[in-house]
Amino acid sequence: MRFTKGHGTGNDFVVVADPDGELELTPGLVAALCDRRKGIGGDGVIRVVRSAKHPEAAEQAAEAEWFMDYRNSDGSIAEMCGNGLRVFVRYLLTHGLATPGPSGLPVATRAGVLRTEIGDGTIRTRLTTPRVYAGSTATIGALTVPGVAVDCGNPHLVCGLHDGVALAALDLTRAPLHDLAVFPAGVNVEFVEPAEPLNGLDLHVRMRVHERGSGETQSCGTGALAVGAVALRDAGLTTGSVAVDVLGGRLVVTCEPDGSWWLEGPAVLVAEGDVDPDAVL
Questions:
Q1: Does 220 qualify as catalytic in the annotation?
Q2: For 107-119, how does the pLDDT look when each residue is reduced to its tens digit (9 = 90+)?
């Protein structure tokens, strides 16, 4: 099976081309491919499949030729992945599978059809409008941190750190405990602290994230979107740009005057090769 390895700010993925939807991508195979010791290694697997050939995306085929079938590293299905979307688009462009039009390149996802724009070394993606909808908490050991629930097409809990708690000191080797009544399907948890101002940007924050099904990752695109939405709201801003520093680099979240939300950052393909599915299972 041919694969490509790519990442967006350190959030890394195994990309597998399956244009006609013929590959049986089982949870076990996904987990094996993502195993960093016995497989290729990654935070998830992205399957590149034509929308018309996938039952979950057939209705989107008229708007977007390609569907991003994303799986977490434990084999579970995810609605969306902001960093993965940029890597997906980079794959399409590099392999000549798509050409951006005047309004960008549309991609079908489980969160709907999303538009992307190609920049100079970066890719800018229009994401689902984040919806801040409830208060909740996350618990790490003896520490309980208040947070805000945000729906970005997938569930997030954004927790601002206070009272001298340092972002770097958090132990995210285990999943933070969360309220199952608020997040019955699990949640991506972001911990945030303010950072120094940057020229040309309205706000600047740092975050770490524990992704459901993957553990702590170097970055999370929809997590950055959720963090940006909460940061703008807390600053009393209805539009603006937020620099979100993650372990793997920097992402920029922007809310435009027309109400659209964008995520911009790098997307890099680093290797291609062949893998024997029977050998990794």
A1: yes
A2: 999 999 999 999 9
